[in-house]
């Protein structure tokens, strides 16, 4: 029996080669892409899930009442962690955490190491297992260093790392550290990424010693493990007294400035963010929002694509069943019952699905390297090789085959014996289903296309927007060598002085956009002004900053060439000027703890942060001997590449061991759009695949419908219909479906896209043309798809079509 | 008199066409005994095919009684009727209705598959049948590769493989030339002699003459 079914299935698939191929190609593409996208989603969602105590680990953050409502903040001060553990019940273990880069030397070799500075509890809270060395107290000593297997291999090769001494550059001195333990290389689904781990107290003067005992200097994150008996909400409530005690002045200031307290009546509230949410949390816009939209969107796209391919399969199977009516009828006459027929037809579908899934897996394997490069992900197919996940995958594949293969099989098995023997099929009701499915298909395609268009528009808008500074002619790079910042800048200036294509050189403590090294920092300063609390971004700059970036001075002056004479001057942006609210802004002063600074100039607002944020108040300082990690070099616009090479050469001659990580500011801005670009590529490729698959289905339908209406076409031609009239007749029905799809999909797309655009302070206006464009693309592609068949049918000799009857 | 195979007792079939009720078969009374060879005659639309289909249980009478081997078919459930015709009835069609995707061998074998007969037994039965009809050499060909007469031969072989008591043949020679037609009719006559009851619908007087009894139908009535 089985063999018989198998044989007839193969023969049938072979007989309908065109349709089998269309189906297999469509399903293979869909399965291949769905596998990759599912893999990506699972990979994203499994971030930080490998920690044994994961459910009990939280990041501590604060929610403050501010001028614009609730503001969330993860930075904590030096005494905070220890005090929290002592004073609030429920803290099982706690660690401070700061991630940065250090320069490590061993013998003559130098290594850039990403470093985590943590407290000793760190290794007990997180599951970074120590495989060698001191498993108990690896970093209790301030001269210990723990490294990953990979880092140890990089530094020592095959030598035994435990007990070796390395030196780390700190405050311009080489400080010796002893390797005490080796950590197992951790999964690439870890948000924390480090080569070496050092004691929190091993940080430089600026980051640690200076901050001891200071509650007002917040520069690191804090993670804690909650005691098992304690609930998160309960713990958050219990911290009220702690907050009242240690942040009295913050709370008083908030009250004085008339901010709105949160619903519990608190002006500052400590909160816990579950570890699994950390990667998906957004602190930029008021209260913390945890959003897994991106991975689920990706999963959604894969489901939509699978759906489209399955619709093709269902439509083709049902349409093709008309040609098997006699077989169905005959089998029934010979004694087959419904169940047997169902399993026969379903089995044929399963065969197609099995082939497609097999090819789909191969396709996914083949595409994986490209996928990893395009989406900058380390997700691999191994991500999916987890028993419970595999079970889910297998079940969903079974479900898909059950529905897509089973539904047509059910229809066929239910046909009446005589009716099918006569070859008559009541096609009326089924066209409804087919049409609705096709409308859905094209609706999805149009939705994805318009999404891509809008996204692309927005990203182009952000990329090309005038940000208020010169981003085309300025090269920025980090001072990542051994020299201190001031020395390095001095040397660099001297080197580049005579070059005609170098216009000016400056430096600052912050970077615009996102540099090649991927590091970023912001400093926000809060002080009291005229009895009010004022917050401002603090940017410390070197000479020529304003000139190098072409910032516009609208009042007052820039810093003098002799920067030292301006060490007590500040230049503010318009937003800051507005916040200070002075009649004569140039006569105003700001009073910080250490000194009083005079405002000497006001610059036009420029977008020093990303475009999803409004321009915040900002103050430029010219403080001497400050950390100025980022150099900006403005070059002449003639030969940008040559200028880049010159700057690189200059840097290499000053710091031969350090890597040159320079890039133009417009590339830096581009880098901040990575998330959006990934989304465009995802949705864009999704929409291309969606339209291709929909058109495969449409093509198959046009083949079948033209065949079914052959006689009608013949008769119409004989009574005088023209070629164009017949082409229109055949095309009209499909066109109608696409128009309906457009009418349904566009409002949904409009709603979704306007919701997404809300994330951006600077955004494009949606206009009807983007959606009409998407609909137009769908219509044109669809028409081209069916044109070949319909025109051929319309021009064929009517006698031929009638003779077949 | 031989055993009664089936009897129709004022059996009718009506269909609704819009608001009209049309009687396809009108109060048919018919007794068929084992070993009979009945020819149904009548013009197109007189109800021959409908009567055959109803007797073959592919269709139902809307009124009246139908008894097959003493079992009341008219009050039976679908499942039991299906069991009954699977066991006792073989069909032969004008258009042969072979399954295009199956070879001659497989076409003949199919009814046995639905009867859950063991593989070795199936092989023997199909081999016998191929032998008997002299089509052993054609067993691996597909229907499209055969002439009409050969296809009908396969169709009859397939109808016979289940050892039915009754063969229902709807215009079995309608698509054949006269020579092939005669051969097929000879075969039916031979089968009838071997004890198989046959009811055939036909337009042709000469074919009808092979039967032991002729029943004329007109507008759904026996005349």
TrEMBL record, chain A:
Annotated transmembrane regions: 21-43, 296-320, 341-368, 388-412, 433-456, 679-707, 734-753, 768-788
Major location category of this protein: membrane
UniProt domain ABC3 transporter permease C-terminal: residue ranges: 301-415, 687-798
Localization of this protein: Cell membrane
UniProt keywords, alphabetically: Cell membrane, Membrane, Transmembrane, Transmembrane helix
InterPro entries for this protein: ABC3_permease_C, MacB_PCD, Macrolide_Exporter_MacB
GO CC annotations, alphabetized: plasma membrane
Pfam families membership: FtsX (PF02687), MacB_PCD (PF12704)
Record carries keyword Transmembrane helix: yes
GO molecular function: transmembrane transporter activity
Membrane topology per record: Multi-pass membrane protein
Domain MacB-like periplasmic core intervals: 20-239, 498-648
Protein name: ABC-type antimicrobial peptide transport system permease subunit
The species this protein was found in: Formosa algae
Automatic annotation (TrEMBL), chain B:
Superkingdom assignment: Bacteria
Example of a GO cellular component annotation carried by this entry: membrane protein complex
CDD domains, alphabetized: ABC_MJ0796_LolCDE_FtsE
Annotated ABC transporter domain residues: 6-223
Pfam families listed in its UniProt record: ABC_tran
Coiled coil: none
Presence of keyword tRNA-binding: no
InterPro entries referenced in this protein's UniProt entry, alphabetically: AAA+_ATPase, ABC_transporter-like_ATP-bd, ABC_transporter-like_CS, ABC_transpr_LolD-like, MacB-like_ATP-bd, P-loop_NTPase
Gene Ontology MF terms in the entry: ATP binding; ATP hydrolysis activity; transmembrane transporter activity
Keywords for the protein's UniProt record, in alphabetical order: ATP-binding, Lipoprotein, Nucleotide-binding, Transport
SUPFAM superfamilies attached to this UniProt entry: P-loop containing nucleoside triphosphate hydrolases
Record's signal peptide: none
PANTHER family in alphabetical order: ABC TRANSPORTER ATP-BINDING PROTEIN YTRE, IMPORT ATP-BINDING PROTEIN
Family from the record: Belongs to the ABC transporter superfamily. Macrolide exporter (TC 3.A.1.122) family.
Protein name: ABC-type lipoprotein export system ATPase subunit
Organism this protein belongs to: Formosa algae
């Amino acid at each position: 029996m089985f063999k018989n079914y198998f044989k007839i299935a193969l023969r049938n698939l072979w007989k309908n080669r065109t349709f089998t191929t269309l189906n297999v190609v469509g399903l293979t593409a869909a399965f291949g892409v769905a596998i990759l996208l599912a893999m990506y989603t699972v990979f994203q969602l499994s971030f930080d899930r490998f920690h044994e105590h994961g459910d009990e680990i939280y990041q501590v953050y604060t929610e403050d009442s501010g001028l614009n409502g609730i503001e969330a903040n993860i930075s904590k001060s030096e005494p905070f962690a220890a005090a929290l553990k002592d004073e609030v019940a429920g803290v099982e273990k706690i660690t401070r955490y700061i991630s940065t880069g250090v320069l490590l030397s061993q013998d003559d070799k130098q290594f850039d190491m990403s470093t985590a500075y943590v407290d000793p509890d760190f290794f007990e809270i997180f599951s970074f297992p120590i495989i060698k060395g001191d498993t108990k107290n690896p970093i209790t000593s301030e001269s210990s260093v723990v490294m990953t297997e990979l880092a140890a291999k990089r530094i020592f090769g095959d030598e035994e790392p435990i007990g070796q001494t390395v030196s780390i550059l700190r405050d311009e001195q080489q400080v010796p550290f002893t390797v005490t333990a080796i950590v197992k290389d951790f999964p690439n689904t870890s948000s924390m990424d480090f080569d070496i781990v050092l004691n929190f107290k091993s940080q430089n003067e600026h980051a640690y010693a200076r901050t001891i005992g200071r509650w007002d200097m917040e520069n690191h994150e804090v993670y804690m493990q909650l005691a098992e008996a304690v609930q998160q909400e309960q713990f958050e409530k219990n911290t009220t007294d702690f907050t009242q005690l240690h942040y009295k002045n913050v709370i008083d200031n908030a009250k004085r400035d008339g901010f709105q307290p949160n619903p519990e009546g608190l002006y500052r509230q400590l909160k816990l963010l579950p570890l699994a949410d950390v990667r998906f949390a957004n602190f930029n816009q008021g209260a913390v929002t945890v959003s897994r939209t991106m991975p689920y969107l990706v999963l959604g796209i894969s489901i939509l694509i699978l759906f489209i391919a399955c619709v093709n399969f269902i439509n083709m199977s049902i349409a093709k069943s008309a040609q098997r009516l006699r077989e169905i009828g005959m089998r029934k006459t010979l004694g087959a019952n419904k169940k047997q027929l169902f399993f026969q037809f379903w089995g044929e579908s399963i065969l197609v699905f099995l082939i497609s899934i097999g090819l789909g897996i191969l396709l996914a394997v083949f595409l994986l390297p490209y996928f990893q490069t395009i989406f900058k992900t380390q997700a691999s197919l191994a991500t999916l090789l987890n028993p419970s996940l595999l079970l889910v995958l297998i079940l969903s594949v079974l479900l898909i085959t059950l529905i897509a293969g089973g539904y047509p099989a059910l229809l066929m098995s239910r046909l009446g014996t005589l009716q099918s023997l006569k070859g008559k099929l009541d096609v009326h009701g089924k066209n409804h289903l087919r049409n609705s499915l096709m409308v859905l298909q094209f609706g999805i395609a149009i939705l994805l296309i318009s999404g891509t268009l809008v996204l692309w528009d927005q990203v182009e808008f952000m990329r090309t927007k005038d940000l208020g500074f010169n981003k085309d002619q300025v090269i920025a790079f980090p001072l990542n060598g051994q020299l201190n910042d001031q020395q390095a800048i001095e040397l660099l200036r001297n080197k580049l002085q005579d070059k005609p294509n170098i216009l000016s050189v400056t430096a600052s403590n912050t970077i615009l956009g996102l540099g090649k090294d991927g590091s970023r920092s912001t400093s926000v300063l809060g002080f009291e002004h005229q009895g009010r609390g004022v917050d401002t971004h603090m940017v410390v700059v070197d000479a020529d900053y304003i000139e190098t970036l072409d910032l516009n001075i609208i009042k007052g002056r820039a810093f003098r060439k002799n920067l030292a004479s301006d060490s007590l001057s500040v230049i503010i942006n318009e937003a800051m000027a507005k916040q200070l609210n002075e009649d004569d802004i140039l006569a105003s002063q700001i009073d910080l703890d250490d000194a009083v600074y005079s405002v000497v100039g006001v610059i036009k607002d420029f977008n020093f942060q990303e475009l999803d944020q409004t321009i915040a108040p900002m103050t430029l300082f010219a403080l001497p001997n400050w950390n100025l990690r980022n150099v900006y070099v403005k070059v002449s616009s003639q030969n940008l590449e040559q200028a880049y090479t010159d700057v690189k050469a200059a840097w290499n001659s000053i710091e031969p061991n350090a890597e040159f990580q320079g890039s133009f500011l417009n590339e830096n801005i581009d880098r901040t759009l990575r998330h959006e670009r990934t989304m465009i590529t995802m949705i864009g490729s999704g929409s291309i695949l969606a339209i291709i698959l929909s058109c495969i289905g449409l093509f198959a339908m046009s083949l079948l419908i033209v065949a079914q209406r052959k006689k009608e076409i013949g008769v119409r031609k004989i009574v005088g219909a023209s070629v164009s009239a017949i082409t229109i007749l055949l095309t009209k029905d499909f066109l109608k479906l696409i128009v309906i799809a457009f009418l349904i999909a566009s409002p949904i797309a409009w709603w979704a896209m306007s919701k997404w655009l809300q994330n951006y302070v600077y955004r494009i206006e949606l206009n009807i043309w983007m959606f009409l464009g998407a609909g137009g693309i769908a219509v044109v592609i669809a028409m081209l798809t069916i044109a070949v068949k319909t025109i051929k049918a319309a021009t064929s000799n009517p006698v031929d079509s009638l003779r077949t009857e | 008199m031989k055993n009664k195979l089936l009897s129709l007792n004022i059996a009718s079939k009506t269909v609704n066409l819009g608001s009209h009720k049309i009687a396809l078969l009108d109060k048919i009374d018919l007794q068929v005994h084992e070993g009979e060879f009945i020819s149904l005659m009548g013009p197109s639309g007189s109800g021959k095919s409908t009567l055959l289909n109803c007797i073959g249980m592919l269709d139902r009478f809307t009124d009246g009684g139908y008894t097959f081997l003493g079992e009341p078919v008219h009050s039976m459930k679908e499942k039991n009727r299906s069991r009954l015709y699977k066991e006792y009835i073989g069909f032969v069609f004008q258009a042969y209705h072979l399954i295009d995707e199956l070879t001659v061998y497989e076409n003949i074998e199919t009814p046995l598959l639905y009867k859950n007969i063991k593989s070795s037994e199936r092989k023997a039965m199909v081999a016998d049948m191929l032998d008997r009809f002299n089509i052993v050499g054609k067993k691996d060909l597909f229907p499209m590769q055969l002439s009409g007469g050969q296809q009908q031969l396969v169709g009859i072989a397939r109808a016979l493989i289940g050892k039915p008591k009754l063969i229902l043949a709807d215009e079995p020679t309608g698509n054949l030339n006269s020579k092939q037609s005669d051969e097929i009719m000879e075969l039916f006559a031979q089968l009838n002699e071997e004890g198989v009851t046959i009811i055939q619908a036909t337009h042709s007087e000469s074919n009808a003459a092979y039967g032991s009894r002729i029943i004329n139908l007109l507008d759904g009535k026996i005349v």
